[in-house]
Design a protein that fits this description.
This protein has helices spanning 20-32, 43-53, 107-117, 121-126, 169-175, 215-236, 241-244, 262-272, 279-295, 301-308; strands at residues 3-5, 8-11, 63-69, 86-93, 98-106, 145-149, 160-168, 182-185, 203-205, 253-261. By secondary structure, it is an alpha+beta fold. It binds flavin-adenine dinucleotide (FAD).
Length: 310
């Protein structure tokens, strides 16, 4: 019989530069369902492997925030608009009461700056050689400083959060349409639910828009169990995960790692916590909004009132 699981969400915190690699490994291994392989030594080989294979979206889950003086030379950063995941703004720094250039992005965007513009400053300041594009390059910007990892005292553009959520495939399909966020998903192409690692059963989320114990609920439940029987029969005949996934329903459990800055999260909540969104999307998004309200009550005050008020 299928396993019924509940949607849930948790923040994957990242507070210091030294934890960038373990954070990325944690995010990446969630999609491969290989969290049990994590030890103190596995992060760097894991990252080298994903960089070699070109699966760079996993390194988008670590963000660093920088500042530098507002000089004509440093303003060159504003011409690098083609780098996805890189954000720059001119902001007043409350600590020194002066305007500074604030730049933030993820590890992939800093590698793209190095590849595209031969500017290695961000990678060199972060100082983890595994990510370097070139080893002995000189600095381009002057007085570039690291201001934070994932969170900073600057605007919502330069504050990020990574969440791990359990939702259904239908919700994940809708949520991954948001192009300015970064995602890592447990792949249905590689997960074979007939294997021991998955307990030899399909994991599904109960539909939140079908009343529990109603006639319709039991029809859904029978249908899901029939699918599981056919899935296991196909597996016995030697079907691979790639073939088996063709019969997976929208209710199938999905593990989703998602990272975005507050500006994008606010945009996503405005669309996905709204009554126009699918109920399963709304449910998971409200859980994530509640987590964001804990971290940044000020940024999300309006949305808390709009979407979370009883
Ligand atoms: C109620 C509802 C019903 C929906 N129904 C359907 C449907 O029937 N069919 C369907 O295909 N989709 C549907 N969608 C998905 C929807 O069309 C969007 O793809 C999804 O919501 C992503 O939102 P977005 O494009 O506003 O923003 P994001 O991808 O989150 O991007 C954020 C912002 O960045 C900017 N941006 C990002 N990329 C670009 C770009 N390439 N060019 C210009 N600006 C860009 C825009 O300003 C955008 O608002 C639905 C969404 C909702 C909420």
């Amino acid at each position: 019989m299928v396993k019924l699981v509940k949607e849930k969400t948790e923040v994957y915190p990242l507070n210091k530069i030294d934890d960038i690699c373990t954070h990325i490994e944690r995010c990446g291994r969630t999609c491969y369902k290989s969290e049990n392989k994590i030890t103190e030594e596995t992060a760097l080989p894991f990252i080298s492997g994903i960089l070699k294979s070109g699966h760079e979206s996993v390194i988008e889950h670590a963000n660093v925030i920088f500042s530098m003086p507002n000089t004509a030379h440093n303003s060159r950063i504003f011409t690098m608009r083609d780098i996805r995941g890189l954000y720059c703004s001119l902001e007043k720094d409350p600590l020194i009461n002066q305007e500074v250039i604030v730049v933030s992005g993820n590890m992939r965007s800093f590698r793209d700056v190095a590849r595209q513009y031969n500017i290695h400053d961000f990678l060199l300041k972060i100082g983890i050689p595994t990510f370097y594009i070139a080893d002995n390059s000189s600095l381009f910007f002057s007085d570039l400083k690291i201001e934070g990892v994932q969170q900073s005292r600057f605007s919502e553009l330069h504050n990020y959060v990574t969440t791990h959520s359990i939702c259904d495939l239908g919700a994940y399909k809708d949520i991954t349409r948001h192009r300015l966020a970064s995602f890592s998903i447990e792949s249905t192409r590689y997960c074979n639910y007939s294997k021991g690692k998955f307990g030899g059963e399909l994991a599904v989320l109960e539909p939140c828009n079908i009343e529990k114990d109603s006639e319709m609920y039991y029809i859904w439940f029978d249908a899901i169990n029939e699918i599981e029987k056919h899935y296991m029969k196909m597996a016995e005949l030697g079907a691979k995960a790639d073939q088996l996934r063709m019969i997976l329903p929208h209710s199938t459990k999905a593990d989703m790692i998602m990272t975005a800055n507050v500006t994008e999260w606010k945009h996503i909540f405005s669309l996905r916590c709204h009554t126009a969104a699918h109920p399963s999307v709304r449910r998971i998004m409200k859980l994530i909004l509640a987590e964001c309200c804990q971290i940044w009550p000020n940024f999300f005050d309006e949305q808390k009132k709009e979407f979370l008020a009883a």
